[in-house]
Design goal:
The protein has nine helices and two strands; from the N terminus they run H-H-H-H-E-E-H-H-H-H-H. By secondary structure, the chain is mainly alpha-helical. It has a two-stranded antiparallel ribbon.
Length: 252
């Protein structure tokens, strides 16, 4: 007995999985080395089957060169979506990095084998908190849903638009730095005032040896203020996910 399967739906599902795999390879937290490549591929195939009913009537490639060109287009679209996701969600870690710079913790940077770069204490802590909030609040479902909705606006076979991608990536850069500064600015302001107060203390009463108490006091003040800043992280994560959905819509 022979079983014949239509080629067009299978090719459409494979091309959709290429876009999703490219997104998973770049977008956090799925891009981490803690997530095996096999899991990423299986997850991409599962998500591509979800959008398969929406891909009826799509023109699929008929020869190998056209198929390779379409796969390249889907990979570029997925990588762009993943890079925009990385930029927007990296705002929380960037806020922690700014706190490390102004709080004096940047000297305690350590190599992170998962991200393959140097991370300071609060930068890594804020990154882990951001990922935790992403899953605890089910915001990751909104992110994945935003990627799946791109197949409605830009179905399989849509050409990658470099001008639109450059504009969205530039906007995502600005959004990342703006959100990071908004989260870290209260902590930075308190640390700057503490530095100013200790500097004035060394001038007014040099016999107190303020330099000896400067570093312990600044470390303790940083830990206290950072603990207070945790209250704004859930709302920040929610707003970042909302902006990410808007960026996906603008990109496609």
């Amino acid at each position: 007995m022979e079983i014949s399967l239509p080629a067009a739906p299978i090719v459409a599902v494979v091309l959709a999985s290429v876009r999703i795999v490219a997104w998973l390879m770049v977008a956090p937290p799925f891009s981490s080395r803690a997530v095996p490549v096999t899991v990423k591929v299986l997850l991409a195939l599962g998500l591509s089957l979800v959008v398969a009913p929406r891909m009826t009537g799509i023109q699929v490639p008929r020869d190998v060169p056209e198929l390779l060109g379409s796969a390249l287009q889907e990979a570029l679209i997925g990588a762009t979506l993943g890079f925009v996701t990385y930029l927007v969600l990296a705002a929380v870690q960037t806020a922690g990095d700014l706190i490390d710079v102004f709080g004096g913790f940047q000297l305690a940077s350590a190599f992170d084998p998962l991200s393959q770069n140097m991370n300071a204490i609060h930068g890594k802590l804020f990154s882990m908190l951001g990922v935790m909030l992403l899953f605890a609040t089910n915001a990751y479902l909104l992110v994945i849903g935003g990627v799946l909705r791109t197949f409605e606006r830009a179905p399989v076979g849509t050409a990658w638009q470099p001008s639109s991608a450059a504009e969205v990536v530039t906007t995502a850069f600005g959004l990342m730095f703006t959100a990071a500064v908004q989260v870290a600015l209260p902590v930075i302001g308190v640390l700057c005032l503490a530095d100013l107060g200790l500097a004035l203390l060394t001038k007014v009463a040099p016999q107190l040896n303020a330099i000896g108490i400067m570093f312990p006091a600044k470390i303790g003040l940083t830990l206290i203020v950072v603990g207070l800043s945790f209250a704004v992280l859930p709302e920040t994560t929610t707003r970042l996910v909302d902006h990410l959905s808007d960026a996906f819509s603008a990109l496609v």
